[in-house]
Design goal:
The chain has a single domain, classed as Winged helix-like DNA-binding domain superfamily/Winged helix DNA-binding domain (Arc Repressor Mutant, subunit A), CATH 1.10.10.10. Helices cover 61% and strands 11% of the residues. The protein has helices at residues 13-34, 44-51, 58-65, 69-81, 103-127, 129-145; strands spanning 56-57, 85-90, 93-101.
Amino acid sequence: MTDDPRFAPEVVLPVLLRPGRSVYGMFIRDALIEAGFTDMPANGGYVLGLLEPDGAPLGDVISDLGVSKQTGSGLVDTLVIRGYVDRTEDPADRRRMRLTLTERGRAASETVYRTVVDVDARLVAIVGAERMAHTKETLAALVSLYTPAAPGR
């Protein structure tokens, strides 16, 4: 794989997770810029993915981001102002706001999706499909450890 000691087998997983996520982020940022979406804020592409295909309640989006309400609302405001997202009353509960993608938001979201698929294909070419599947399974198990319904919480 690599002889870089930063990636030796004894390195703990958290040391690899942050830069690994950053690699996806760099590819996504470059693809968005190349496609003309030069004003996409940090984490904007992630939010667009949360809204596919039918939108989502504002509170759920902010919660999934794992940031403060103020920070999440600021990001959403930026996406609305820049024409990526529409914010409307939730028809099921008028006290809640619902976010949906605009046409521009759908185009940007498609760019993000294609980029992630491309990066995944590059990884499969390096480590193989089986190891990629195991990696996804392991990360899904990691995420499931810290949920409100997880045993031992």
